[in-house]
Write a structure and sequence with these properties.
Strand content: 5-15%
Number of strands: 4
Structural class: alpha+beta
Number of helices: 7
Distance between the termini: 87 Å
Low-confidence stretches: 1-13, 15-19
């Protein structure tokens, strides 16, 4: 058994429960809430969670380059088939994304490249800001999270989303937030996880029984008895009613 676990055990045992106070009128439910709160607040539990999920506490400054799905097209007559034209416009922006990726990898400025890309897409702009600060791994789309594996100065591959847009990232800087800065976040995460685990006990099929709704000590009513305990009189057969 590790020394860290023993320290955690001593920490829990040394905490004073409401039930240890002779003047306390806390219910059992309140006592369980107290134990839950102390568990979440435990330094050992928090540090273990932090070390196990350290990648999620990384924070980065990135440059993000966006290439639209397709170049803006002039309105075409309704009777004119324009599917080929739309495909050509999309292919043109895919080529722009590949070109920008190569130029960014050679050190060209992201803001300058972004202005050029908007111009080629038919939506010109004079100013842009490609810098993203205080970015956390969970805030990115799942398919973009590998950006956090980049070293400062490195440029990502081109990420093409299902909708057709293209994204390129450059890692400017990255740090791991210290434990003291994320304690509240960790407490919330642990509490939510324990709640989800406890709710799993109630996710099975619920079967209701008539006996559940009968007060203790009262006899169960059979199908042939009424609420007063008398035997019900069966209705006469249908053919007897018409005779």
């Amino acid at each position: 058994m590790s020394l860290r676990f023993l320290a955690f055990g001593r920490e829990i045992l040394n905490l004073r429960s409401p039930l240890q106070n002779p003047d306390s009128n806390q219910s059992k439910a309140n006592s369980e809430e107290w134990v839950q709160a102390k568990y979440v607040q435990s330094k050992y539990v928090q540090s273990t969670y932090y070390n196990k999920n350290k990648p999620s506490f990384e924070q980065a400054t990135l440059a993000q380059f966006f290439v639209p799905h397709a170049k803006q097209l002039a309105p075409a007559p309704e009777e004119q088939e324009n599917s080929a034209q739309e495909k050509a416009a999309a292919d043109a922006m895919t080529k722009v994304a590949a070109d920008v990726r190569a130029r960014a990898g050679n050190g060209e400025d992201f803001d300058k490249l972004q202005i050029e890309a908007y111009a080629q897409a038919g939506t010109p702009r004079t100013t842009v800001n490609t810098k993203l600060e205080k970015v956390r791994r969970p805030t990115l789309p799942p398919q973009h999270e590998t950006v956090f594996d980049l070293k400062p100065g490195e440029v990502s591959e081109v990420f093409s989303d299902p909708e057709g847009a293209h994204f390129i990232y450059k890692m400017i800087g990255k740090e791991t937030l210290p434990l003291d800065d994320v304690k509240t976040e960790i407490r919330t995460a642990i509490s939510s996880q324990r709640y989800r685990d406890s709710m799993k006990l109630f996710q099975g099929d619920v079967v209701f029984s008539d006996a559940y709704f009968i007060a203790p000590g009262k006899p169960t009513i059979t199908p042939h008895e009424d609420r007063r305990g008398k035997r019900k009189r069966s209705a006469p057969p249908l053919h007897d009613q018409h005779e």
